Amino acid sequence: MKKLILGTLLAVVVAVITFPIVVNSETVLTRNAIITGGGIITEGHGKDASKITFGVHVLIKYIVNENGDPIDETGEVSDDGQLLFAEPPIGNFHINFHNIDNDDLDKGKFTTTDITAVRIAPASRPEIGDIPYIFVNMEANGKFNGENGWAIVVRISDFGAPGKAKKAIPDNAVDAIRISVFNYNEIDPAVYDTATGQVDFPWEQAHRTLLDGGNVTVYY
Fold it and tell me: DSSP alpha helices (H): ranges in the chain?
């Protein structure tokens, strides 16, 4: 427990401190964002249940203004939460697919090689009383079963409530995820989306599926 508390405190401290660094011969102010955790979404029961498990730990150093606000390439405050990287993000996002309605992906594994874009923004759900959460949109290239040319777009909502709490917390205000997979080795790269047609997983929170276990935390 002490190690967990110390690790959490360290992550918070690392995320909130502003660091001056040199980028392209220019000194800029930066902050860190950390996305960490993992989980599972399931649909069905027994050995035939559809499952996706995932894990993420990513450190993003992004450029900010004197107030600590993220800025865009023009130097203005980013109005949509898009982060301007000071350095390439460090870390990994991996996904395992089990019994899903796509023969190409089923029983396979995706692992990131580089993270190309991240958007982090505070949000709320006015329809259920303005419950606040943090929204993440991450784009990354990677390998599927060792083959290059694949990519993902992942949307995450961090309500600060783990998936195991979804039955106890009303209005679906728990962590959720949507995963879109692309294979750029093919003419039509769009391969799979957990939200498309609700074939495998339900839309329980916008187009996202509530975690059935696990937790994702965003330090920002």
Answer: 2-16
Neighbouring residues of 214: CB distance < 8 A, sequence distance ≥ 6: 37, 38, 39, 40, 162, 163, 175
Q: What phi-psi label fits residue 102: left (phi over 0), alpha (psi between -120 and 50 degrees) or beta?
A: beta
Task: Give me the torsion for CA of 162, 168, 172, 174, rounded to 10°.
Answer: -10
* φ and ψ at residue 167, rounded to 5 degrees: -80, -20
The model's pTM is 0.86
Hey, is 90 helix, strand or coil? strand
Q: What is the pLDDT of residues 72-113, one digit of tens each?
A: 989 899 989 999 999 999 999 999 999 998 888 999 999 999
CA gap 201, 3 in Å, rounded: 35
